[in-house]
């Protein structure tokens, strides 16, 4: 695919301030309409999909539409051919992406196994990261990136599901807090400064309750909710198992206090 500098000079938005393509939801429809009839709509969209650009409008597609397509076909590395055949029709692009062999370096059986793990674990892992304190957008980005890395290293990963959970968590932690799991402390802010998601799922009572815990405590609770033993959590975080058990105990005690306080306040 040609680089953006080769086609962007012919784009309909070439005279528009680039930041105007990164707009709030209420202005998105107007900006998307600017892309209709653009001669480079396909390479623009392919560029965004190939490079996993998760913000802004590219080729007339919003970030939500691009995220959805990438979730359906996480291992597609080049979208140009698919989009040339499907145009900007979402359903056609999704169907073509799912039909083609996306992982040519794997056998058909290996690709099927990867796809099964992806479909089984994507949504639970997003929920896992939300429980750990992430916004839905950050959680989806981290899980998507971890799935791509899993596809690339499939033959070297002995246990895909725990590997995927650990990798997604580390990617999320690094992108939001700029730290490694072994650098977790209770002094780190309880929520990232850019956590402003208004997703309905994040307003569930348990998620909101967990977010009132320090980061380290809600992290070990999130691993426990995902079915991990303390030893597995310790291995994923690179800390002693005793540290995990201690923080689980503290988290449960604080949750009990918070529940009591909330119940008392409601009387």
Protein architecture, described:
By secondary structure, the chain is mainly α. Helix content is 60%, strand content 0%. The chain has helices at residues 4-7, 25-33, 41-50, 63-72, 80-86, 90-99, 108-131, 136-152, 160-177, 205-210, 215-225, 230-237, 241-265. α12 packs across α13. The longest helix is centred in the C-terminal third of the chain and has 25 residues, at 241-265. The N and C termini lie far apart (63 Å). Mean pLDDT is 78; it is low at 188-203. Residues 12-68 form the 4Fe-4S Wbl-type domain. Belongs to the WhiB family. Belongs to the sigma-70 factor family. ECF subfamily. Acts as a transcriptional regulator. Probably redox-responsive. The apo- but not holo-form probably binds DNA.
Key words describing this protein structure:
mainly alpha; 267 residues; 2 domains; globular; Butyryl-CoA Dehydrogenase, subunit A, domain 3
Could you write a compact summary of the structure shown?
This protein has 267 residues and is mostly helical. It has helices at 4-7, 25-33, 41-50, 63-72, 80-86, 90-99, 108-131, 136-152, 160-177, 205-210, 215-225, 230-237, 241-265. The longest helix is centred in the last third of the chain and has 25 residues, at 241-265.
Morphology:
globular
Number of helical regions = 13
Strand content: under 5%
User: N- to C-terminal separation?
Assistant: 63 Å
Gyration radius from CA atoms, angstroms: 21 Å
Low-pLDDT stretches: 188-203
Give the helices and strands as they follow along the chain: HHHHHHHHHHHHH
What's the CATH topology name of the largest domain? Butyryl-CoA Dehydrogenase, subunit A, domain 3
Structural class: mainly alpha
The total beta strand count reads 0
Task: Give the averaged pLDDT, no decimals.
Answer: 78
CATH level-two architecture of the largest domain:
Up-down Bundle
Taking the sheet with the most strands, its summary is:
none
Estimate nothing, just give the exact number of structural domains: 2
Subcellular location: Cytoplasm
Family: Belongs to the WhiB family. Belongs to the sigma-70 factor family. ECF subfamily.
Protein name: Transcriptional regulator WhiB
Pfam families: Sigma70_r4_2, Whib
